[in-house]
Task: inverse folding
């Protein structure tokens, strides 16, 4: 984990947590807590509920640390577990309150964030065009198929690798690569009419950075 050089791999961190090392558990918690909360916002639009679900996930891990043995990477395990807790919560609401007709992933937070554009590209002179692009990117992403959109957002917004996405969604790495290729091609096709040559270059750079 990047947060602490003492743990060179998931296996090393997992072993320390299983042995009762609370410092190792804190490393895991700090590394994923905020990202998992943001991830659950796509399912549940109440921040406090998302935070409670993530806190409960980590509490369960710590309480069962001696027998905790996740398959695959820690990242894919945590995202999948968080998603399952969110879905369970929504199913509970559906039974109790009868107002949830479906469970849809929110795209309200989708946009062109600063992290989506490499810092070394100077585009201040195109700020108005960037603002327009942000709006059009958001609209373009909503036109992707649900599966394609999910894969794209897990890669761009959550920083998961293709292998982690594959483990998380129980699909092959090749499928992830194919879906990402389709997403980037569709976005480029939809955005091309509105972009200058310089911003088209930025889109190509983005595709390189997240591939």
Result:
């Amino acid at each position: 984990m990047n947060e602490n050089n003492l743990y060179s791999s998931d296996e090393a961190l997992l072993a320390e947590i299983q042995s009762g090392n609370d410092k190792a558990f804190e490393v895991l918690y700090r590394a994923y807590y905020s990202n998992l909360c943001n991830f659950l916002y796509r399912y549940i639009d109440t921040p406090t509920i998302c935070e409670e679900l993530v806190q409960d996930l980590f509490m369960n891990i710590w309480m069962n640390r001696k027998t905790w043995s996740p398959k695959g990477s820690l990242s894919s395990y945590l995202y999948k577990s968080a998603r399952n807790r969110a879905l369970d919560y929504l199913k509970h609401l559906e039974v109790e309150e009868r107002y949830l007709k479906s469970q849809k992933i929110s795209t309200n937070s989708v946009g062109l964030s600063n992290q989506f554009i490499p810092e070394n590209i100077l585009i201040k002179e195109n700020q108005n065009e960037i603002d327009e692009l942000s709006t059009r990117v958001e609209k373009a992403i909503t036109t992707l198929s649900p599966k394609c959109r999910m894969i794209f957002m897990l890669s761009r917004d959550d920083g998961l690798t293709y292998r982690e996405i594959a483990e998380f969604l129980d699909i092959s790495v090749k499928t992830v690569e194919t879906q990402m290729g389709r997403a980037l091609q569709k976005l480029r096709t939809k955005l091309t009419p509105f972009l200058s040559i310089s911003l088209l270059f930025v889109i190509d750079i983005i595709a390189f950075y997240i591939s």
